Amino acid sequence: MSNLANIRNFCIIAHVDHGKTTLSDRLLERTQTVEKRQMKEQLLDSMDLEREKGITIKCHPVTMLYKSANGHEYTLNLIDTPGHVDFSYEVSRSLAACEGACLLIDASQGVEAQTVANATLAMQQNLEILPIINKIDLPGARPEEARRQLEDILTIPAHDALLASGKAGIGITEILESIILRVPPPRWSDYKHHRALIFDSLFDTYKGVVAYVRVFSGAFSPGDTIQLMANNAKSTIKEVGIFSPKPHPTETLQPGSVGYIVLNIREVSDVKIGDTITLAANPATEPVPGFKEVRPMVFSGIYPIDTANYEKLKNSLAKLAINDAALTHTPESSVALGFGFRCGFLGLLHMEIIQERLRREYDLDIISTYPSVVYRIHTSDGKITPIDNPSFMPNPSLITCIEEPTIKARLHIPAWSIGDILTLIMEKRGQCDHTDTLDQDRVMLACTLPLNEILVDFNDRLKSLTRGYGSLDYELGHYITSDLVKMDILVQEEPVDAFSCIVHRQKAEARGRAICERLKELLPRQLFKVPIQAAIGGKVIARETLGSTGKDVTAKCYGGDITRKRKLLDKQKEGKKRMKQIGRVSIPQEVFTKILRNEG
C-alpha cells in the first residue's frame, strides 16, 4: 500500500488557449521526464493539426517521477485534456481516470464558458480541484480579478489558487508540491476484482488496438485473458506499458497506474472508449462509473471526389473511429455524388478536424455535404421518425409536425457587445433566458438556440462581434416543434439531391436565392437557357436563369435578302425548343465541390 500512497493521478482542465499544453511542457521539464535537448513546444500535442490550430484534440497521458521536498519520490500521472466544447466527452473520460484536476484560468481573460463547464464536470466526479491562475507575467494580467471570479462564479475559495506562468516557468514547483499535498492517492484500489477504465484508444498498424487505461484494482500483465464489460469480448494482452511520454513497455500495470494495454483484437469497433477491462477468469460484476455512449449531434455526408477511392475512405473512417468514439459512419449514396458515408460528429470543429485528418493522414480528396442535425418527423399515422438526411424526408402531405433539437448555450461576452450579441441570438431564432453580470467588464448570457442555427457561422460571428473576447459553451437541450420545410434545388426542373436541405420556412427564400445565384455563376452554359430553381414541395421560391451560349447560325449567310437570315434564325429557335425538351444538364464535379465547400 505504501506504493499506492505515492501515486497521484491528475489532469489539467481549462478553456481553449488558457495554457494547458505549455504548463504540461514545464511539468515535464521540471520532473526531468524529457531531456532538455529533446524538449520542444507543445510536446504532448503530437498531431500537426493540434500544433497549427493551437488546440488539443486527443488526450495525452504521461507518467512523471518527482522527488518531493519531503524526501519521498512520487509517481505523477498527468492526462492532458482538450479544451474545446466539441471534445467535452474526452474531458469527462479523462476526469473519470483521475482523483484531482488542475483548473487553469488565464489571468488576463478570467473565468470563461469552458472553464465553468469543465469545473462542473470535475465537481460531478468528486475530484479535488486545484485552481491555478496562469499567465501572470502578461502585461494585462489581473490575478486578483481572477481570484474574485473563482469565488463568485465557481464557489472555489480564492486563497486555494496558485499563481503561475507556463511560459516563464513561474510557480511550477509549487504546483507539483500542491498536487502531492492535496490530490488524494488512487481510489477504489481495494475492489475485489480486476478493473481498468479505457479512457482512449488508437489503432497501431503493427500492434493492433492499443487501449489507454487507468488501472483501478488488480494488476494486468502480458498473457492475461481479459474481458470487455460493454460487449463481453475476450482477448489476450500482448503488451502493457506506460507513457514517458513515448510508450515504454513494462512487465505489469499495477493498481493506480496509467498506461496502455495492447489487445489481441482485430475489430476496431469492439473497443468502446469509457468501457471497463476485467479478467475473463474472474470478471467484475460492475464497471467503473463513467461509461456512457456518446451521441453525435451534427451529421454530414462525406464522399470521395474520385469514386475509385470509396474503399479507401471506408477503411480510413474505420481507423479514425477507433481513435474517436464520437465518430459514426453509415454508407449512403447520392445521384449526384455517388457512394459515400453519412458521418456523425460532436460539433462543427470535430467535423472540420475529421475532414482535415482524412485529407492529410489518409491522402483522400473528399467533398462534404451541408451539415444537418437529427430532426424528429411526426407523421399522420402516429409514427415519429428520426431523420438526419433530407433525402429520407417523407411526403409533406403525411407530415403533421417536425421537431428540431435545441441547445442550452452559455455565452461569456464583454459587456459592451451585449446589444450586438442579442441581435445575433434573435437572428438565429434563439432566446435569451437570463443574464448574469460577472464583473464590470463581462456578462454571461444563458440562451436557448436551435442546434442547426449554430452549425455554420455562429462561432465566427460571435468572435468577430466581441473582437475575439466572446466564448461559447453548450449542451444539448430539448426538442421543440418548428416550422421546418425541405428545400429542393432544381436544375432544368430536375432535383439535385446533394443541395437539398431542411430549413426554417422564414429563411428558405434567402438560402434558396443564395444557392441559385451561386449555381448561376458556376454552371457551364448550355446551348439553351437553363432554369435554376429553389422549391418547397411544388412551390418555387427563388429562380435564376442561366443564359445560353449563342451560336451564330447566320455566319455562313452573306448577301441576299433579310428573309434568308430570318429563316435560319427561326429554324434555330425551333431546334432550341426541341433541345430544351430533351436536353439534360450534367453538373461538373467541381461545381459541387465549390458550392458545398463554400456552403459548409
Low-pLDDT residue intervals, each spanning 5 or more residues: 42-51
By secondary-structure content and strand pairing, the structural class works out as: alpha+beta
Give the N-terminus to C-terminus distance in angstroms.
55 Å
Helix content: 25-40%
Shape: globular
Measured on Cα atoms, how large is the radius of gyration?
A: 29 Å
Number of DSSP strands? 28
Q: Can you name the CATH architecture of the largest domain?
A: 3-Layer(aba) Sandwich
In DSSP terms, counting alpha (H) and pi (I) runs of 4 or more, how many helices?
A: 14
The proportion of strand residues reads 25-35%
CATH names the topology of the largest domain as Rossmann fold
Mean pLDDT, rounded to whole units? 81
Question: What is the total number of structural domains?
Answer: 5
Return the CATH class of the largest domain: Alpha Beta
- Specify the CATH homologous superfamily of the largest domain: P-loop containing nucleotide triphosphate hydrolases
Main beta sheet: strand number and arrangement?
6 strands, mixed
How are the strands ordered across the major sheet? 2-3-1-4-5-6
